[in-house]
Design brief:
The chain has 260 residues and is mainly alpha-helical. Helix content is 41%, strand content 10%. It has one domain. Helix 3 runs antiparallel to helix 4 and helix 4 runs antiparallel to helix 5. Pfam families: DUF547 (PF04784).
Length: 260
């Protein structure tokens, strides 16, 4: 590749990069409706309790303060999840399994490379972030973060609120929640996450001349529907008077969600 062309590719802003489409990986579609297995997410919860900082407009993570022993506990939690076969879980347990796995693995990637200014700095030379890097092996299947989000969560559950549940360790991302997902609390947490994001300026910011939306609504527009469907979705969760989406701008902040 010519050096000039390479430089132009590396300088492309994030908003020009095509987001992955939902593309089902059939191997993971199986579930056991009668399964009573409960996955233990207590190690992940203890880490959230200790290092997550929740502020009115932004949740941050104390990456620089995570002790060696707690980093080990996170690694142990991920190894324990990887030993399971999620296809043997019921759907509600599966959902919590995949969301927690995604979020915990993202935190582990940051810790393994800390200090770093943005998750987009990780990955290979020609990569925008680590999302296509193999980070896990489950039932012998190599998995990337993109596999979890776009080949498992999105196509199986077909719920746009998934975008509020998975966290990419960035200030522009919907907040990492203070509670680990479980089979019993997932619906409540999804509603909470949608409400929090849409009522934050990084989600929806209205001015007299235009509405600035998170780039999530641009990248994954097919999940939220046309403008009318998106407007209905936003107004369902938005506090105050309903809005109409006229002139729209999109923004996203890839800086690390770091509590220094």
């Amino acid at each position: 590749m010519r050096p000039l062309l390479l430089m132009l590719i590396l300088l492309l802003p994030a908003t020009t990069l095509a987001a992955p489409k939902a593309n089902l990986w059939p191997y993971w579609q199986q579930a056991s409706a009668t399964s009573q297995v409960r996955v233990d997410h207590s190690r992940w919860q203890r880490l959230l309790d200790k290092y997550l900082v929740a502020a009115p407009q932004q949740t941050l993570f104390r990456y620089g303060q995570v002790s060696a022993s707690d980093n080990y506990e996170l690694d142990r939690y991920l190894r324990d999840l990887a030993k399971l076969d999620p296809r043997q879980l019921n759907r509600r347990e599966q959902f919590a399994y995949w969301v927690n796995l995604y979020n915990a693995q993202t935190v582990k990637l940051i810790l393994d490379n800390y200090p770093v200014s943005s998750i987009t700095k990780l990955g290979g030379l020609f990569s925008f972030g680590p999302w296509d890097e193999q980070v896990l092996t489950i039932t012998g299947q190599p998995l990337t973060l993109n596999d979890i989000e776009h080949r498992i969560l999105r196509p199986i559950w077909k719920d746009p609120r998934i975008h509020y549940a998975v966290n990419c360790a960035s200030l522009g991302c919907p907040d990492l929640l203070s509670k680990a997902f479980t089979a019993n609390n997932s619906e409540r947490l999804l509603e909470q996450a949608a409400t929090r994001f849409i009522n934050s300026r990084k989600g929806v910011a209205v001015s007299s001349s235009s509405t600035t939306l998170s780039s999530i609504y641009d990248w994954y527009g097919s999940d939220f529907g046309d403008k009318a469907a998106l407007t209905k979705h936003i107004n369902h969760y938005r506090d105050g008077a309903p809005i109409s989406l006229g002139k729209i701008k999109y923004e996203y902040n890839w800086s690390l969600n770091d509590a220094k």
